[in-house]
Amino acid sequence: MELVWLIPVAGTAAALYAAWLAYDVLRRDQGTEAMQDVSSMIFEGAMAFLRRQYGTIALLAVVTAVIIGVIVGAVSEGVKEILYDGDAITYGSVEVSQWQEGLLTAIAFLVGAACSGLAGYIGMYISVRSNSRTASAATRSLKEAITVALRGGAVSGFLVVALSLIGVSTIFLIYSEALGNPKAIAPFLIVGFGFGASFVALFAQLGGGIYTKAADVGADLVGKVEAGIPEDDPRNAAVIADLVGDNVGDCAGRGADLFESMSAENIGAMILGVAIYAVTGDLEWIIFPLVLRSFGILATIVGLHSVPLFAKDDANQDPMTPLNRGYYIVSALSVVGLFIATKVMLGDEWYWFFFCGLVGIATGIAFVYITQYYTSGSWRPVREIADASLTGPATTIITGTAVGLETTAATALAIGTALVASFALGSEADIPGVGGFTTGVFGTAVATMGMLMSAAYVLSMDTFGPITDNAGGITEMSGAPESARHITDALDSVGNTTKALTKGYAVASAGLAAFLLFSAYLDKVKERIGYPLNEELPIDLSNVDVFAGGLIGGMLVFLFAGLAIRAVGSAAGDIIEEVRRQFREDPGIMAGTSRPDYGRAVDITARAALRAMILPGLLAVGLPITVGLVFRFTRSEELVLGDRVIDDPSGWLAVSGMLMIGTIVGILLATFFNNVGGAWDNAKKYIEAGNLSVDGKTQGKGTDAHKAAVVGDTVGDPFKDTAGPSLHVLIKLLATITLVMAPLFIP
Amino acid sequence: MELVWLIPVAGTAAALYAAWLAYDVLRRDQGTEAMQDVSSMIFEGAMAFLRRQYGTIALLAVVTAVIIGVIVGAVSEGVKEILYDGDAITYGSVEVSQWQEGLLTAIAFLVGAACSGLAGYIGMYISVRSNSRTASAATRSLKEAITVALRGGAVSGFLVVALSLIGVSTIFLIYSEALGNPKAIAPFLIVGFGFGASFVALFAQLGGGIYTKAADVGADLVGKVEAGIPEDDPRNAAVIADLVGDNVGDCAGRGADLFESMSAENIGAMILGVAIYAVTGDLEWIIFPLVLRSFGILATIVGLHSVPLFAKDDANQDPMTPLNRGYYIVSALSVVGLFIATKVMLGDEWYWFFFCGLVGIATGIAFVYITQYYTSGSWRPVREIADASLTGPATTIITGTAVGLETTAATALAIGTALVASFALGSEADIPGVGGFTTGVFGTAVATMGMLMSAAYVLSMDTFGPITDNAGGITEMSGAPESARHITDALDSVGNTTKALTKGYAVASAGLAAFLLFSAYLDKVKERIGYPLNEELPIDLSNVDVFAGGLIGGMLVFLFAGLAIRAVGSAAGDIIEEVRRQFREDPGIMAGTSRPDYGRAVDITARAALRAMILPGLLAVGLPITVGLVFRFTRSEELVLGDRVIDDPSGWLAVSGMLMIGTIVGILLATFFNNVGGAWDNAKKYIEAGNLSVDGKTQGKGTDAHKAAVVGDTVGDPFKDTAGPSLHVLIKLLATITLVMAPLFIP
């Protein structure tokens, strides 16, 4: 337990650093009055949406917490003491009564939900305060503009990581030390925290994703198509809603997504550590994930703070260069931290886990580059789509779909390789009394932790995206000088890249985290049915319950994505109605003599988006529970495993299949949506930049090829910003909901 | 063995009936000279393509057969006698040496490939001979036109079913009786037949699917867009290739698809029967699938022959009515046949399996209606897409995608319910010494057989599609009277429905067949590793090899679909080049004074399509083998199951995950592609029929809404006619290839 002191140190350091970053950004020059004017409208819109969104989520969360408490309290048998007799792990007397377990799980759920909401709220607050400051900095230098945008984004990144670490550590400490429960069972009591985080993430990402694309599509259709006014024209009442949308999707939504990844991964890894702790008696196996995260935070502070050192006072420098250098520093320091943490904490065979962590760090780096290859105009895939736009929108869509489907290959191979390699390395570790299967799964957990060490940095780069995007809009609308536009354009283009690579990173981390959460779910099942934690409980794919559950899990992913995409359309309809109404009732708007009511458009978009998120959200929460209950109560067979006969396993078997196969399908479909959307977007930008030509004649803006590319971009919008990111969250929600609701499926 | 005599009777009856149908169609009036002229060009093009395609496939098949023979001969340990000691199933001495097994498997592969090819060739021959005869009949009466088109299609349907039944029965008889091998091991020797059928089906469906859409897209782009001439204009050299394409995709391709479903399902069910036969000693359990298929054939002959009785001499009758009545007769007689077969053959508890078969028959009927709901203009989904086309091509694609994703829900729930219900019913059957797991899996096999009893009828309706489609084209190009057009239009529209519902039927049968083929694969693994056939061998989803294999299996489905869609684009490019060349080199074509060289365009399309199918085809064959070998040779862990320790299972575990999860992903993605393509197609037709209006003004042909709908239709073409159907075949190929290549993955 030598490094435990690092957890509060790193947590406090991260929170203080976030506070300093916020202070540093807020004290800067806010720009001209015109800039501040636009910025304050965005700010008000974003805050109004967040208040409304978190209000809805809070209501849903409280109801859900009560339901969780009652269900777990009513159907659970309480948590039993975990014993090791030198051979097998067995279970002793009940340590935590069933109603106590229900109460603690419900409280953990609320704390997880609150931490996630708090991180999202403060991060957004600073993010929408940073845009005019970035626009102002851009009138002076590239270096200053990068610094402001990145630091504004980093507030969100650090808060997310800090609140996840502090939240999980504190609740673990209270549920073990303060309540006097054995440390080996405390991880099972805090699974509610992960579910709370998933719950908020689902609605934040789904609501945010629907909002951002409904505003985008609605503003375009009613402005460009109907009224014939250009994009971002201030006469369009939906224009501010569109700028607000960038923040709620990429900042608040993705922040909640990665908050969930880290929290769920931490808790899952702690549960896996229980099986080793029960045998060895070393608490390090449970605490290790928190310590490694602490090292990641320290590494990220150094890396992030070094970025301005690499930025030159040269407006022609590629802004990606300093960001990449900072990422290398974070990765290098993470390796050092990983070395120290594994060597000090993980016993004699620590080096196997060190290698596992290296696999994870390498996977993170690989995903950053895989995503760039498929979505950047510098490579073959995007150029093929641009070429296809010469023969019209149909071939643009067909070629894009082909490219998008093909991008799943690299993703699946990279995740598969990382899993198998880290499992194989972990299973080499020889810990007396612990089987290779247990150390192997722990190895995949270490790989996931290694990958997520850089989460705060990646998230800072991600939130950099909407800040620079907004800064570009503010610069344009406020009539700032040409040189500033040049800088914000360069930053905006880099922001598109960082947003895309964060999605790749989020998919990969979801894939790795899901595998270990599944193992944690099985440990929970073992604990419930009294099966030794250190023996493998097979979930047989040729079992009809597992297969049918898997088919339904895969279907859930398709259906959820379909509903999310459909929701964008229905919410966009509401905005269009409102903008039409404003045009009709106040002719001064079109004449440019009176200002449209932006706030009302923002509010209507928010209400429509939040209404539209309810159905897919309830489906995601309700279907796993329904499947578990239906299979449990309509089927009655035995599972024979060697000498053991397990009664009525259909419920938890079907849920297992649903969870695992839903995860695989979710990874593939999310990758498809994210990449095809990014590729269409950049094919359009590639054409706009004048890179496409036929017989020596450039096919730029306004040509038929460009129009076809715009169709592709519009189709890709709800794919990459609504369906894809919501699927990452769905994958992890499946894992956390089954963890918490497991007692419902087990007789 | 009381009903065994039925197999040769039904096989002969089916072949004779097919011969009579062919005679009946060919003796009919071929229509006017103009009709015969167009028809003979289609005939020559289709036959030229088939010769070239089957030439390529034959070459690939012979090479593959040699490879199979060598591999199985070199790595297998031979097939051992199966013994039952009153408790467990064990294995005795080697009955078939390893090289003999290799030789027999290779021969079975070639016979399966040859039967599939023969059925496709003869079926196509009659199909493209029926089109002008249908056109001619349409000048006289609807009743006669339906009769000709359905009988032309039924030649293909009956040949496919008859050759599958005769092929499997004959090779089973030779490999057991003639060669003196125990009947219990013969099913393992004939798995090559299923692989041969899959192999031909893959290339037939893929090559045919690429051909048909490349010709369609190429003819449209170069004709309508570039040269500005209408669709189906005889000046367009690609026009005949387009008409040929309808036949090679829907007739030859789908025929090979269902030939494979039936053959693989027969063989898989026979392997599952071995486990019961080994205990009970009743050969009925192995022979039963062949007998049930025989009843299906007899039922179909009656049903098909009754269709003209329901057709009225009234041109306004909906042609779907007599087709549906015929289908009900087939279903009703199938129930009778099922009753007799189960009662006579399946012991005292036969009724459980009777219920399983009923589940299968009901599932077949359900899929016919589910598909109609999602792809017909009479219901909500297609109308929503039509409404979305009012706001342009982007919203048409977005709404269509949402609808397509949602259609997977009904499909997955129906397949899942059928599997669980038939398994639960089957496992109730109490056969002393045989576990509930074994009888349950056999129950799912009976459900699959029940569903496929109507295969010949469904396939006849499917081939009805291209015949009526061609008849419509011939009627138009030959200037036949308006009344004939009215009839062929009605038939063509019904043909679109029957083509769509056959795809739904094919997906469902692929899903059910895959589950039982997977069980057969596990039986083969058990036989190889010496594991009792009547005990469950768990494929643990939380095992990292299974999970990673599953991830790669799911990815294979996405990648394969992407490559298939891409192939359409590249083949279309070749046709466009050729048509352009003909316009350029002979100005008389455009002036209408000289006739374009249709044959050359057909030939170039054929060559391009066959070249384009090689890469995805090799991926489908090569990746499962590569995964099995890589996991086998790079990983070395033990699998502990109770007292048994199995060495080095990673190869076959990874392949198991790949097979099962690839199947689930394949079902979902194929459903998406088939339904979204059908829905876009019918949304366009819905608008063309004048059903869409805004403010009381009809938005028909030529409006912006129609143009947007055409974009949707064009995007959907390669989805529904290339990617979707090829995925059905991929699913089953995965199953048969792993069955045959299993020894490669097992140390």
Explain this structure.
Two copies of one chain form a homodimer. The first copy, chain A, has 21 helices and six strands. Chain A is globular. The longest helix of chain A has 48 residues, at 482-529. Chain A has 747 residues and is mainly alpha-helical. In chain A, helix 16 (482-529) packs parallel to helix 21. At the A-B interface, helix 12, helix 13, helix 14, helix 16 and helix 17 of A face helix 6, helix 12, helix 13, helix 14 and helix 16 of B.
SS field, number of helical segments of chain A: 21
**DSSP strand tally of chain A:** 6
* Relative helix content of chain A: over 70%
Question: How would you classify the helix and strand content of chain A by structural class?
Answer: mainly alpha
The rounded Rg of chain A comes to 25 Å
H/E element sequence of chain A: HHEEHHHHHHHHHHHHHHHHHEEHEEH
Described by the principal axes of the CA atoms, the overall outline of chain A is globular
N-C termini distance of chain A: 38 Å
Q: What key attributes describe this structure?
A:
homodimer, 747 residues, mainly alpha, two-stranded antiparallel ribbon, globular
Topology:
Two copies of one chain form a homodimer.
Chain A lengths: L5 H21 L6 H43 L3 E6 L4 E8 L1 H41 L3 H37 L7 H4 L1 H37 L11 H42 L3 H27 L9 H26 L4 H26 L4 H9 L4 H14 L1 H21 L7 H17 L2 H23 L4 H48 L14 H42 L1 H5 L6 H37 L3 E4 L2 E4 L2 H39 L4 E2 L2 E2 L5 H42 L2
